[in-house]
Amino acid sequence: MFLRLVTFTAALTWLAAPATAQRVSQAPAPSEIVAAAPASDWVAIAPADLLVMDLVTDAKGRDRRVVIQLMPPPFSAGWVANIRTLAKAHWWDGTSINRVQDNYVAQWGDPDGEDVAKAKPLPPGLVKVSQNEYTFRLDWRNVPDELVNEQYELDPSVSRLGNRDKYAGFTGHIDGWPIAGSEFGQRPASTRKYHPLMAWPVHCYAMVGVGRGMPPDTGTGAELYTVIGHAPRHLDRNIALVGRVIEGIENLSSLPRGKGPLGFYDAAQGDERVPILRIRLGDAVADLPSYEYLSPGSAAFARYADARANRRDPFFITPAGGADVCNIPVPVRRHGTP
Amino acid sequence: MFLRLVTFTAALTWLAAPATAQRVSQAPAPSEIVAAAPASDWVAIAPADLLVMDLVTDAKGRDRRVVIQLMPPPFSAGWVANIRTLAKAHWWDGTSINRVQDNYVAQWGDPDGEDVAKAKPLPPGLVKVSQNEYTFRLDWRNVPDELVNEQYELDPSVSRLGNRDKYAGFTGHIDGWPIAGSEFGQRPASTRKYHPLMAWPVHCYAMVGVGRGMPPDTGTGAELYTVIGHAPRHLDRNIALVGRVIEGIENLSSLPRGKGPLGFYDAAQGDERVPILRIRLGDAVADLPSYEYLSPGSAAFARYADARANRRDPFFITPAGGADVCNIPVPVRRHGTP
Hints:
- The structure is a homodimer.
- Chain A is of the alpha+beta class.
- Chain A is 16% helix and 22% strand.
- The first copy, chain A, is built from seven helices and 16 strands.
- Chain A is globular.
- The two termini of chain A are 29 Å apart.
- The model of chain A is unreliable at 1-24, 141-162, 184-188 and 190-194 (pLDDT under 50).
- At the A-B interface, loops of A face loops of B.
């Protein structure tokens, strides 16, 4: 798999173009740009890369399904492999949502996981992953010539001004995922293709990560959480991210908050824990629709990112002039739906 | 009232100090720093500056109260005055929570507000506020000599590197509120006290704003929302912010999501709308505790902000090196509680 780094260079160029009154009044909203994107700008997500969690029905008898897209290599490959093993072993069936901390995370797994005597035994075959795997090396030598296009020819000043944020030297999307990384240096032409960068996935809303104990523990993948508040970027490079919720996050984000430390349900709230019926890989779920994401390398995505940073649709009077990477979520939809 | 601008200069200095292994292992978490702050670092919130919303009890018969702190002048003074008028008229009593959009906002007011024929009449005395009031002028002439201390003597490079973000030239706290503003320029000594800046409140998690129609409408204050997701900073300077939820936000953020456009409850979900029993100003509520916030000008806050940006407590292995203004929420508590 080749790494495809996409930043908001195109969006910044767009911003520089003068806007006429006519254009302002007709400017589409980001959702309209996404709806109008051609089919060729969408990338299918393989069912095998989905993790499907079914919770017990709610108080009104409604189904509650959460669909998670797992990250491809080189991101968090060890943990993702463990998650596949756990799903195939049906390990999560009968576990529960144990923690819902407002403006932070919803977390699931074995409610007795902290208690050695009562913890549910893990299946065989799980690998132990090193802390070094929280980041990966974005090495230009791995980028084939045909992909070394103008998207990679970042002017360092653009990187600083357009994509640098409080947490990283650059932000952007690689293979459809929100990624941050170390500062771009000045790259002389001769070393252009040999400049390694450290990069890591970003804790945006709905991203899924691996709960763990104190370092050097890195977690197995049995304990998972998703972000349900403002991006907790201080967790970047400290915990493994393994995917994102692409459908049904409201089944986690709208759960009652836990009243115990860190938002775990306390003893009096034991009955608030929502049981997990089952978690399966997508290719083991018969009734699963097909999903696709809007390629961050597409022209439609560039317009969408620009519109997220500079709202010109009629409701807005002052475009922000920028957007952090978590405010430009990669659009995901059921295949072919508008 | 004097404007007190506090940025993270102190925090940045702290970062530069070398950390010994001993110190790292004993580093307190942000919550521990807040708990240890002396009583003198806390600022009491006047009950008259609180807005207290009581929802009907939940399915288990539990009370649901949301406490909002209103912003002081010069922020959004016209809208805040309207909100006081609406509360004193008991206008919200019997209205409801009408919109809950995941990763965005929960909104309340008259469910028929869009329908001229059915809309609930507003009380007399509401003022119409100009769009110009979305921002305010931070004028050094208004800052008294005794407050022109080193906190104001910002080195522009610090402003750029430490507090600039994707949305604004600087971010920080004024009078305990998250504020962004236009870029600091180079200020010659002779004009040091005469440099006007445009500034505005920031749409962080739990901030409360004023719903409105298409511009130039600015809303009356009868339709309010709070942020329940990643900071929607594109709304800054486009909608009035009037306060923040300081207690009970889980009573809004954990509500079922609306399935209609923009997260409004659709016809089939009408029964999901939670009725509002009453909204009152804090000085009209008999059983209200006292609240206080940690002064962003205090030494404890500087240590807290630094720890938010650079977690050194044992769980963390890689400090982020920065934090956006919404990831440094101003701590608020019931008076005197740890």
